[in-house]
Amino acid sequence: MSKARLLAPWVDDGSDRSAIYHVVSRIVGRDFLLDARCKEQFVRYMRMYEAFCGVRVLTYCIMTNHFHILVEIPPKCDRHLSDEALIEHLEVLYSEEYVDQVRLHLELLEKATHPEGRAAHTELREHFTRRMWDLGLFMKTLKQRFSTWYNKKHGRRGTLWEARYKSVLVENGYAARTMAAYIELNPVRAGMVEDPKAYRWCGYAEAVAGGQLARNGLMRILSELDSDTAVDGWSGARDITKYDWRTVAQRYRLILFEDGASYDERAEIAQQQSRGFSEVQWKKEQEREGKLSIAEIARCQSRYFVEGAVLGSREWVNEVIEGIKGDFLSESRKALSSKMRGALDGCGLWSMRKLE
């Protein structure tokens, strides 16, 4: 029996808060099946279902045997979605002929004066909107659609993905920025490229290449660090129009490459010395008072970024734990926030590890 998926505890309480998740899914057997064409197709489907489901991909990285997506799930807003806006969502997935039929049907039912007609109008809308603003359905449809394409393309049958996807609930701001850096640096850590902008199938590279959706995602991540960018409406909304991409690009690149050159230097020194640090390292560590860069954090052990369940400040993690209800946290199962240790000690982030 599959375990209940941890979702933000405010999802179903009518709150106007969004929720950010880091989701990971691997190819069955962890085989390296995703070549360049497969990665391109996966990104295409990801953007397609992002638009249809009304979610926001903040950044991503498609590797050869797994993928990472940092996705924001807005609160359900079906009551505020006009028929015209619903049609725009449908145009992403369905044929022009089918969309025209739905549009005509909605127009006829919307004009109905009897209760049965109004009920039919609501039912038709819900047939589509129940698949929107939902992490599970976004992931399910994306993975199924890609699996169908891949199996047909390669003449294979059976499951393509290894078990269910993993997800980590991530706090806005510093935690989300840290997670984004961890995702972007995957191909660098794997030795596939020396610069993340050279890896075509990640959010940063897409943004550098001019992709507006990718740029919006990165601006959205950085906007959470600025308290003056909130706009009216749901609390997850941010005004990214105040940001200039060139400025954001420079800022985000510094995040990704902070201390990059010195990291290579330290590796060379480590090979030449049997113990201790160089004088340059020691002085630099004093100057920065032991504070870790985002890049250093992202290079550390991945268990907090993949195997955990919640990532954020201590107060925020505890808030999530207090709000968890239902099957995920029963009377016999306990959860505690834990400070990140080892190389991550001092970064200000806490985690709730996945429950057994």
UniProtKB/TrEMBL annotation:
Residues 16-186 form the Transposase IS200-like domain. Gene3D superfamilies: Transposase IS200-like (3.30.70.1290). InterPro entries: Transposase_17 (IPR002686), Transposase_17_sf (IPR036515). SMART domains: Y1_Tnp. Pfam families: Y1_Tnp. This is Transposase. It comes from Rubritalea tangerina.
